Amino acid sequence: MRFQSIAATALAYAVFATPVLAQDRSGWPASFTVGTASQGGTYFAYGSGWANFVAKNLGVSGGAEITGGPVQNMALVHTGDLKLGLTTMGPAREAVDGQSPLAPGMKMDNVCAMFPMYETPFSIAALSSSGIASISDIPPGATIGFGPAGSTSDTYFPRMMEALGVDFKRRNGSWSDLGGQLQDGLIDVVAFAAGIPIPAVSQLEVQTDVNVIGMNDDEAKTITDSFPVSEFIIPASTYQSLDEPSRVVSMWNFAMVNCDMPESFVYEVTKLTMENNSEMVSIHRAALHSVPENYTQNQALPWHPGAARWFNENGYPIDDAAIKH
């Protein structure tokens, strides 16, 4: 399958950047590509900006690739087709256990954790003109857009809607495309799983009135009891459409790397990212949570030795048993 590639070459930065001089660059890749997701979503914005940031500062050609999201990224990084990628803990756990829908029975055990990114809230949007202001307002047979096929949203949100008794027709597509379909009245609801603010929602609410829909007490309890998620509050300041905080559920995201990548390279990438949070936040606001303190949220992937070395050196202990050797 052919994917679009968004490249940020080292040549483009040669005049402007002073590369970090690592002590040992043996085995470093000549270039790298980060697996993200569809355009209009947070993964693409975060991943492409991060790839450019790393390329600029380490002097290695790098860029982002549009993919189907976390499930596909796990497969591409496991095989080495991509060196770096972004994933969510639910799909990561399923892939490591050999339960990936892309390759049932294949244990994707050559994928290692690098650093925590942010939580992915599962949120819902509908046009205000639809009259849909709560999950219970979604009419039977409504068409719901769940994002790209195989994405975190597409993997978990349909199951969540079924658990909440919602009768729906399923639609897949990029977040940008689904936002356009919602605005044109071709679908009734978009069920997003992405870091906030979601670019497609921010763009949509500039064009029309939008309802960003949360969960009530019973709905939140049903979902947290049944899925690997926790409650999450979307601040009212996130979207102009919110008058008050919105309670939803969320799942953590991590940057990952093929376990065969050189330790010194992964160490430098981890160091650069974890020690420059203000620059990461300038890429996307979700990076406010891309801080080392959140490393404990990794419950699915072994740590790459290079990443683990940085965390251990800086007071964030990782047991040897949790490191890939």
UniProtKB/TrEMBL annotation:
Arranged from A to Z, the UniProt key words for this protein are: Signal
Q: Which CDD domains match?
A: PBP2_TAXI_TRAP_like_2 (cd13570)
Q: What is this protein called?
A: TAXI family TRAP transporter solute-binding subunit
Q: Which Pfam families match?
A: NMT1_3
Signal peptide residue numbers: 1-22
Which SUPFAM superfamilies does the record cross-reference, listed alphabetically?
Answer: Periplasmic binding protein-like II (SSF53850)
InterPro entries from the UniProt entry? TRAP_TAXI
Q: What is the lineage of its organism?
A: Bacteria, Pseudomonadati, Pseudomonadota, Gammaproteobacteria, Pseudomonadales
